[in-house]
Amino acid sequence: MSFVRFLARPMLASSFVLAGMDKLKNADDTATQLSPLLRRAAESLPFQTNEKVLARVIGGTQVGAGVLFALGKSARLAATVLAVISALNGYVEWRSADITSKDGRDARRKQLLKNVSLTGGVLLAAVDTNGRPSLAWRAEHLAADAKKNASHLAADVKKTTGKQWKKADKAVRKAVDHTAGA
């Protein structure tokens, strides 16, 4: 891991870890703020749950993904989870912000910009491969190499089969000539 990644991951993750811990500590407030979305999520789940539990799950997920991302363990997966959570937070904060005053609208805009920036940062981290080729690139090149090798193998088989075919044809003609001459 490069020195920049070593510093940048914990710096970016710190905001998510602290926000997740805040969600865990203040699950009632989080549930109230997330209420419209959590109600829909609770309805779509196949089991009974309440909004406070879902708020804690989101907070715990945010803390866990932030810690994993900071440590560089499953960093791309953790960054993807953080991107989803950040987008969710951005939407909820945008929707629940007080816009009755100019200061409220300014705060709403600043909060949205912060959430968009954090989402962009973790999205970049989600596609970061540490300078190594991605799995998609490796799979594509593996398939191309396999196709190339199969083509060479087919050409060799055709060449070998052609030689064997000529030998067999020669042997059959010789046998036919020998039988005809007897």
The gist of it:
By secondary structure, the chain is mostly helical.
Keywords:
182 residues, mainly alpha, 2 domains, 86% helix, elongated
How would you describe what is shown here?
- This protein has 2 domains: 3-131, no CATH class; 133-182.
- Helix content is 86%, strand content 0%.
- The protein has 6 helices and no strands.
- Helix 1 packs antiparallel against helix 3 (51-71).
- The longest helix has 47 residues, at 135-181.
- It starts with a helix and ends with a helix.
**Coarse morphology:** elongated
| Rounded average pLDDT | 84
Uncertain spans, ≥5 residues at pLDDT below 50?
none
Order of SSEs: HHHHHH
Kindly, what is the distance between the CA atoms of the first and last residues, rounded to a whole number of angstroms?
Answer: 82 Å
Strand content: under 5%
Number of domains: 2
The DSSP helix count reads: 6
Number of strands: 0
Proportion of residues in helical segments? over 70%
Radius of gyration: 31 Å
